[in-house]
Amino acid sequence: MTVLKTSLRNFFAHKGRMALSAVAVLLSVAFVCGTLVFTDTMNTTFDKLFQATSSDVTVSAEGSSDSGETTSRTGRPPVLPGSVVATVRGTRGVQSAEGTVFSTSVTVVDADKDKLSPSSGAPTIVGSWNANDARTMKITSGTAPKGPDQIMVDADTAENHHLKLGDEIGVITAIGTHRAHVSGIAAFTVTNPGAAIFYLDTKTAQQTLVGRTGVYTNVNVTAAKGVTDDALKRDVAAALGHGYKVQTAKEVADANQKEVESFLNVMKYAMLGFAGIAFLVGIFLIINTFSMLVAQRTREIGLMRAIGSSRRQVNRSVLVEALLLGVVGSVLGVGAGVGIAVGLMKLMGSMGMKLSTDDLTVAWTTPVTGLVLGVLVTVLAAYLPARRAGKISPMAALRDAGAPADAKAGVVRALIGLVLTGAGGASLYVAAGADKATAGSGWLGLGVVLTLIGFVVIGPVLAGGLVRVLGAIILRVFGPVGRMAERNALRNPRRTGATGAALMIGLALVACLSVVGSSMVASATDQLDKTVGTDFIIQSDNGEVITPQAVKAVKSTPGLARVTEYKMLDASLTTPDGVTSKNETINAADPTYAQDLRTKTVAGSLADAYRPGSMSVFEGFAKKHGLKVGSTVAVDFRDGTTARLTVRAITSDDVVIDKGAMYASIATVARFVPADRMPLDELLFATAKDGQQKSAYAALKSALHDYPQYTVRDQTDYKQALKDQIGQLLNMIYGLLALAIIVAVLGVVNTLALSVVERTREIGLMRAIGLSRRQLRRMIRLESVVIAVFGALLGLGLGMGWGATAQKLLALEGLKVLDIPWPTITGVFIGSAFVGLFAALIPAFRAGRMNVLNAIATD
MacB-like periplasmic core domain spans which residues (predicted)? Predict the structure, then answer.
């Protein structure tokens, strides 16, 4: 009980210091709990949607996905004959059966040719209005579509794109463009996470999406009273026989949920990873806080020991304080986490993904996880200071000798740090010299962990040297105030090292990712310059295939010397060694593709691979199966028959663009794949006539005005798009790393604040002999800047080393250019100095307000 009272008194005696540490715990726990609540809410939302929109049993064509997705490379969904509906209706246990048709291989535009697609990246769906959809949607204005000139739209899409009754809409498919007017607007009775949905009448939907009537993509089956879904599925499957996919509502919902979870899990674990980094940084803050509080209570601890307190009790007293800190920070963090989740939902709503707070899901495991993590991390971080407090002897403490300085322990620490850093450096060296990226990645990971731990352990030793160098460069110009700031930073190298290390972690990751991202862009740009021989690339940014109408528009564009089509087909390959490789892809293109992409070969000529009955394979595949020029490969096309093609070229694996591709001409593939199953083009490549690049570029954009789903890019555009994509990813990562940097800044603030308290008498004496408030504040700010810059130097140096090693592994995959983004590195370094200035604002202000006489009288 005495230990608890002492801990509570000490805890509340340092409310401000504890509050800063509690904020670090709060932020880390909030990020973890916010991530869990947000992803759980997303799962709940989609789960409700999928359960509500699934019929008791669904029949779909063989080849459609388990989730009911109907996209395909042909641009047409796989269909069922109309006779299936009658067969299902006559099956035992069926109350009703309705044929429907829908597709996601569509683009919908308004009268101005602007896309009516969700900004969230959710799909655009066009289908027939049916009884199953009527269960989850309510027509709020107008009527359901009743003829070819009518279309109904969901309320969210109508609101987002300002659609009203009577507005003209165009539905672009592989069949052509169908135009209709808005006849009705329907609102979801469940949460719509953001899909744009349009409804046609059944006959019009069949003609628009498939190209003929009397066929369906799905049959929605409702069970008779008392018939279970599983029993109904068995009876329907038995009545239809082979060649159809029959699923219960649960199976469809589970398949849809599985697809959603695969995306959510990536986001979830990425965000939890950054929360873990914030926890790691917070550990340094908590260690520093308790180390300084223990040092400031040295005499008090001596008195406790003198009147009979044991080491264990002193140790326990400090740990109880940590426990209180962890509980308070964690409880607040759990509450803040729910707020973060709601904020994320609002953010997603602004991006087009509607999430209702009615579905907010807080599983019991979420607060438990937050509390356990927060308390455990806080107590573990406080263990070393607590153990150090227990080792203080009563007599040394009463003399105010402070915590025992163990020179031997310092030497051991330095040796351990050097060994870890050396081992990490050796691992990075081995990774850089690896022959295969997969083998080198393990060494890279080991090197990153060891060098990071090594730098943390050796931080106090590095602080002594680097702070002196920084002092000579930065502080000496400020005269005596600068020299005092330098001595303050050097007074406790362990504290300076720990504070700098907290900032080092976040900046090391920033530097590493900056080097990797910049090198990827530079390498891809270099490859484009060396290998791409065409002027323009036409493609969809959403992965949509290119419709025949758009291909025709491109080919009729004036000023073009050639247009190359590029398709992808699924196939199984059987090589002369008798091995069948399933799920391979054949890239079928026009022979001019050999000019558009100057791919390096190790044997044969790529142009020969486009001869009739010929193909190319990539180097790794050829070595694995003993192929050489002249070998014959049996190619079983999934949507066609089996071809026996002769290998005419073996392409190098030392490339970036189309690495691992196997080529054949479209004419060769067309002999074995029926025209109605031939995939549409994934890409188009266009080359202008000499001297007409500028006019051809403008003409291509004009020709594709009616097809806004496709983008025309010249090589400059393509490089910029690649740079923007990687830049957006890096910016998102930097935003998440900002959490760790914020916690590190709190650490600097806390260190300085406690340091000011620790030096209260010293500050009073300096003020008494003439140091002005302005000089005092400047001294503290300069000390903070040096600590921040020290951490930045360690972090940026370490991160660039990691990034350079990672680039060596990327070079094995063809990304051979190492590019150090000096503007980013310089900006981060300068920003670190401003971070130091910002962190010192409150401690410097409080130091300047000290009463001189009271400060001198401080015991």
Answer: 19-238, 499-697
